[in-house]
Amino acid sequence: QVQLVESGGGLVQAGGSLRLSCAASGRTISGNAMGWFRRAPGKEREFVAGISWSGGRTDYADSVKGRFTVSRDNAKNTVYLQMNSLKPEDTAVYYCVGQRVGKYEYVYWGQGTQVTVSS
Description:
By secondary structure, the protein is mainly β. The protein has strands spanning 3-7, 10-13, 18-25, 34-39, 45-51, 58-60, 68-73, 78-83, 92-102, 105-109, 113-118. Strands 2, 4, 5, 6, 9, 10 and 11 form a 7-stranded mixed sheet that branches. It has a 4-stranded antiparallel sheet with strand order 1-3-8-7, with no helix packed on it. Strand 4 and strand 5 form a beta hairpin. The protein is globular and about 40 Å long.
């Protein structure tokens, strides 16, 4: 079992930045692809970013390409999401996910952290 705990969410003005962290416990995540999803109010959950086990490959939703960067530190069992040039439409609960079993399917999910971008 892997437990994922997100942190770093908060309120930020449009154009600002936030860095989300996802700390994994229970066992190492070094062999697993990880990622981030989000759910905005009244909308379906959507994929945001994914990263391979080594960090050598990343994937992004079109809506965040060029603004968000996913990274990982396997020694610290932690995954990050650097979010720049934030927009009000980025407001959502952000979830860390781990152990990919399909293109956008993951076994482990965190509880989520709220990101609110004011205009």
